Amino acid sequence: MLKTIQKHGTTLAVFAALTTGLTAMVNALTKTTIDNQALLQQKQLFDQVLPAELYDNDLQQSCFVVSAPALGAGEKQLWVARKGETPVAVVMQATAPDGYSGAIQLLVGADFHGKVLGTRVTEHHETPGLGDKIETRISDWITHFAGKVIQGSDDATWAVKKDGGQFDQFTGATITPRAVVNAVKRAGLYAQTLPPQLAALPSCGESHE
């Protein structure tokens, strides 16, 4: 009986080791593919908020980390676009904390002179059929930020039409577009303050403790 138990125990141990090894091998083989796919998706998103002809550096390798209330709570990543050695624009993570159903995560492209170059929503929990019109698969509303210029923090045109601004609200859902407009405006204004800070910003991957 003891020998039988030992035999089964050895068999299970060998099986467990083989399974663990196989899992590790599969993970190693697929990790590169998954990472490459994530980079490709990121690049496609960048292209939607920042025209590729504006810059010639590797945007994905020009990543920095900031803690800026204008972009929302916590650390945010931003990517600096350069033409030659000259910084010309930035892509920023931003949060609209006051969406109807919670925080709305955004990617905002802007130059350093008040012009928003593009905006996309990367995550939200807004109501289907109402607030979800911030998604490009539902509506082109979010594309209307491209090319809009912010004339300072008191620019009243940066509001939904219900509040006297230039941006459409959604039928039955004003809170969501209002939150996005305000967040994009804050991000665009923040971008104007960036050039003097760039040399001191920590790169993504550096310790920020």
Order of helices and strands: HEEEEEH
Mean pLDDT: 89
Distance between the termini: 58 Å
- Strands of the widest sheet, in order across it, are 1-2-3-4-5
Structural class: alpha+beta
The largest β sheet comes out as: 5 strands, antiparallel
In short:
The chain has 209 residues and is an alpha+beta fold. Helix content is 32%, strand content 21%.
Describe the structure.
32% of the residues lie in helices and 21% in strands. By secondary structure, the protein is of the alpha+beta class. A five-stranded antiparallel sheet has the order 1-2-3-4-5. Strand 4 (102-111) and strand 5 (116-123) form a beta hairpin. The longest helix is centred in the N-terminal third of the chain and has 48 residues, at 2-49. The chain is globular and about 80 Å long.
Features of the shown structure:
5-stranded antiparallel beta sheet, 21% strand, 2 helices, alpha+beta, globular, single chain, 209 residues
List the helices and strands and how they pair.
Elements: H1 2-49, E1 63-66, E2 76-83, E3 86-99, E4 102-111, E5 116-123, H2 175-192
Antiparallel strand pairs: 1-2, 2-3, 3-4, 4-5
